[in-house]
Design brief:
With 406 residues, the chain is of the alpha/beta class. It has two domains: 10-59 and 305-405, Aspartate Aminotransferase, domain 1 (Alpha-Beta Complex), CATH 3.90.1150; 74-302, Type I PLP-dependent aspartate aminotransferase-like (Major domain) (Aspartate Aminotransferase, domain 2), CATH 3.40.640.10. Helices cover 40% and strands 18% of the residues.
């Protein structure tokens, strides 16, 4: 018997935690499927998905089984040794994608860090140190390490931490002419989110991604797709590049890959991967057996025709109802996104008030997200049941009604 644990409450956060977050007023303690319960036993429907992470909802039996089985075998051996779950996961990702090589880490930021370092190393080895410039997009988000936050196109996240990493420029998203004007033979990589997540759920135009691919080929630059938020079934394809039919040189994945267990992956070709020779990059926990066992189970469930087709069907169900709610209450003007990454663009009267919508939804027993101050974001489980979608959207409509009547 373990000793009884001391009770904690939301107020403890302000006493013991660094104040870089402002969490909601309640503490979730248990989840099952697309439902979550807080300390008081109140039930909420989860359309936030841990920010596009809980790809199979909460406590999915396949993931619980995989984690439990592995937990009784082997947790950690470091990369001085390899392990079976990591090798199985690498095989699955290579078999299912353009990639021929995988690198495992613990987060999306680390996956992007590896991608950016690889791009610079390839250019350095093949063309010399002058070819090191990275082009990213305005309002992009690529992580919180110093390198990834410098590549991200949101100065509010990178200002105030000393000198930024140089050789990085930002051009407007979905603007091929701006990219064409910026790219040169000094460019080592162009980094694009196929759907911009944090800045408002903005899908790329097909012509933009195709044009970026052509420009990279012309200038011997690598095309990196940040699929941390869009990958592992979120769009109704295993990765968003498949939805567009444009293949990157390097792809970063995380969030949904572990279904809630921390893991990231950087995928690339054999020809590029060889530039990260022994000793050039590493991670203590990356590819640990626990994370890889869970990720294997995630892929076994998600990468099936039934689940991927279900994502597209559920998108249609969400979109039709959300558009109706938006029109009826004048709350938002557009519902955009792909698969189960959906953004509702707030109307002129509600601009800047996404947090108010978040709070109103929570009062009705619904967890949603913001994507910037002007967009309400939905990133639920890919296997959310239709009954939960309908009930959750009923709650959302009640929240919209109360907000707009206030």
């Amino acid at each position: 018997m373990s000793a009884p644990q001391a009770p904690v409450q939301r107020a403890d956060f302000d006493q013991v935690m660094v104040p870089n977050y402002a969490p909601a007023a309640f503490i979730p303690v248990r989840g099952a499927g697309s439902r979550v319960w807080d300390q008081s036993g109140r039930e909420l429907i989860d359309f936030a998905g841990g920010i596009a992470v809980n790809v199979l909802g909460h406590a999915h039996p396949a993931l619980v089984g995989a984690l439990t089985e592995q937990a009784n075998k082997l947790w950690h051996v470091s990369n001085v040794f390899t392990n079976e779950p990591a090798l199985r996961l690498a095989h699955k990702l290579v078999d299912a994608t353009f990639a021929e090589r995988a690198f495992f880490c613990n987060s999306g930021a680390e996956a992007n860090e590896a991608a950016f370092k690889l791009a610079r190393r390839v250019a350095h080895d093949r063309f010399g140190p002058e070819k090191h410039e990275i082009i990213a997009t305005v309002n992009s988000f690529h992580g919180r390490t110093l390198f990834t936050v410098s590549v991200g196109g949101q100065p509010k996240y990178s200002d105030g931490f000393g000198p930024k990493i140089t050789g990085i420029s930002h051009v407007p998203y979905n603007d091929l002419e701006a990219l064409k004007a910026q790219i040169s033979d000094k460019t080592c990589a162009v980094v694009i989110e196929p759907i911009q997540g944090e800045s408002g759920v903005v899908p790329a135009d097909l012509a933009y991604l195709k044009g970026a691919r052509e420009l990279c080929d012309k200038h011997n630059a690598l095309l990196i797709f940040d699929e941390v938020q869009t990958g592992v079934g979120r769009t109704g394809e295993l990765f968003a590049y498949m939805h567009y039919g444009v293949t990157p040189d390097i792809l970063s994945s995380a969030k949904s890959l572990g279904g809630g267990f921390p893991i990231g992956a950087m995928l690339t070709t054999e020809d590029l991967a060889k530039h990260l020779a022994v000793g050039t990059h590493g991670t203590t926990y990356g590819g640990n057996p626990l994370a890889c066992a869970v990720a294997n189970a995630v892929l076994d469930v998600v990468n099936t025709p039934e689940v991927l087709a279900g994502v597209k069907a559920k998108h249609a169900r969400f979109k039709a109802r959300l558009e109706q709610i938006g029109q009826q209450y004048g709350l938002f003007t557009q519902v955009r996104g792909v698969g189960l990454l959906i953004g509702c663009v707030l109307s002129e009267a509600w601009k800047g008030k996404a947090k108010d919508v978040f709070n109103a939804a929570e009062k009705e027993g619904l967890m949603v997200l913001q994507a910037g101050p002007d967009v309400v974001r939905f990133a639920p489980s890919l296997v959310v049941e239709d009954a939960d979608i309908d009930e959750g959207l009923d709650r959302f409509e009640r929240a919209a009604a109360k907000l707009t009547q206030a």
